[in-house]
Design goal:
It comes from Dubosiella newyorkensis. Pfam families: SIR2_2, STALD. InterPro entries: ThsA_STALD (IPR041486). This is NAD(+) hydrolase ThsA Sir2/TIR-associating SLOG domain-containing protein. The chain has about 325 residues and is an alpha/beta fold. It folds into 2 domains: about 130 residues, no CATH class; about 190 residues, Rossmann fold (3-Layer(aba) Sandwich). It is about 50% helix and about 15% strand. The chain contains 11 helices and 9 strands. It has a 5-stranded parallel beta sheet with strand order 7-6-5-8-9, sandwiched between helices. A 4-stranded parallel beta sheet has the order 1-2-3-4.
């Protein structure tokens, strides 16, 4: 599920200027809000710090409800649970409690579910967990292949990359690619094939493309820029799959190893298909040597190390990724 976070701002009240016909800051803010909602009408929203007493807001929500009819998505808002203040009478407390229950019922009419908190500080913890859950939907496929050998010829390597991204998108994951040498096109084509088949309207919700900039001539400066770029790509990633990772007959793709270090520091779910060799094999061995830290791979070590069956490998990745998504 894609979430949009909407945080309220203090309304800046102004008056309409009759000379130049300008509108008040409050009205402009309201117009911007309408376009934000309508432009993302099929997403789920989390309202933070909103006062739902504003009649203009209620009018907007009614419009959206009528436009979507029965297809309205579920949205969420935070609300501090009413508690009896010191010195407050039972009668006044019950009035406040009933008023809050009525407001909760009213919000349900617009598809907004209320999340009650005892303290506002709880919201931060909830947002951290929600962020993890959203990121667990983003899968980065790291790898490159300059040579192909043993069980993995070029055609089979392309098929693995294609099927991997294709099936991940089919399961609702967002695939992210750095357009790695040799496999990048297959990763992208696999995702695009499924996106076209499902006729998804918003490409960026299912596929993220981050080709590395090659126009930096100085080697040192280019490596620095790429290191920053890698961190930026992986910033919102929850799962990383490593395949191949070679730059020739005997050279391991250092970029893949750097991406592994970033993923490890971020506590991403790491899935190395060691049987493809290269950096993926090295990463597999590093994890296996600390296997107690990666219990989510317990049932799959042998498959990831030895299997050359594309369907088996793809299904294994899907199982691990879906389990991780449910947990997070």
């Amino acid at each position: 599920t894609m979430y949009s976070f909407i945080q309220s701002r203090k309304s800046v009240r102004g008056s309409k200027n009759s000379k130049n016909g300008s509108i008040s800051a409050r009205t402009k803010s309201l117009i911007d809000f309408v376009w934000l909602i309508k432009g993302n009408i099929y997403k789920s929203f989390l309202f933070i710090g909103f006062s739902f007493d504003d009649p203009n807001l209620e009018h907007i929500l009614n419009q959206i409800r009528m436009e979507l009819n029965e297809n309205i998505r579920t949205h969420y808002c935070f609300m501090k649970k009413v508690c009896q203040a010191k010195g407050q009478t039972d009668e006044d407390f019950n009035k406040d409690r009933i008023k809050q229950e009525v407001r909760e019922t009213e919000l349900k009419r617009f598809g907004i579910q209320t999340i009650f908190v005892d303290e506002y500080s709880e919201i931060t913890d909830i947002l951290v967990e929600l962020e993890k859950a959203v990121f667990a939907n983003n899968v980065f496929i790291s790898g490159s292949a300059e040579i192909y050998k043993n069980e993995w010829d070029e055609k089979k390597a392309d098929e693995l990359a294609f099927n991997l991204s294709n099936k991940l998108v089919a399961k609702g994951f967002r695939v992210v690619s750095g357009y790695g040498l040799g496999i990048g096109s297959s990763v992208i084509n696999g995702a695009l094939t499924e996106i076209r088949r499902k006729k998804y309207k918003h490409l960026e919700e299912h596929l993220g493309l981050h080709p590395f900039p090659y126009d930096i001539k100085d080697d040192t400066e280019r490596e620095k820029a790429w290191d920053i770029y890698r961190k930026e790509i992986l910033k919102e990633i929850g799962i990383v799959v490593f395949i191949f990772g070679n730059k020739g007959e005997t050279t391991i793709a250092q970029g893949c190893l750097k991406e592994f270090d970033i993923a490890k520091d971020k506590d991403c779910i790491i899935i190395p298909i060691g049987s493809t060799g290269g950096a993926a094999k090295q990463i597999y061995l590093k994890l296996f040597n600390e296997k107690e830290k990666y219990s989510y791979l317990d049932e799959y070590w042998e498959i990831l190390e030895k299997s050359n069956d594309i369907n088996e490998l793809v299904q294994t990745v899907l199982i691990i990724a879906e389990k991780a998504r449910k947990v997070l």
